[in-house]
Design brief:
Blueprint (H helix, E strand, L loop, with lengths): L16 H12 L6 H15 L2
Helix pairs in contact: 1-2
Length: 51
């Protein structure tokens, strides 16, 4: 939930979950990326796709 400074709920635009998963999957396959981040990215991608 996003709350505006007035206390009202605010709309927040974001990417589609499948687009997010595609981005995370691509990041997890980058050879030069930190190994810890690659593992986290892979888990986030598969967690979205398989739920």
């Amino acid at each position: 939930m996003v709350v505006a400074t007035s206390g009202d709920m605010a709309l927040m635009r974001t990417v589609h979950p499948l687009d997010f998963a595609r981005i995370k999957l691509a990041l997890s396959q980058q050879a030069g990326r930190d190994a810890n981040k690659r593992g986290k990215d892979a888990l986030q991608a598969t967690g979205i796709v398989w739920r």
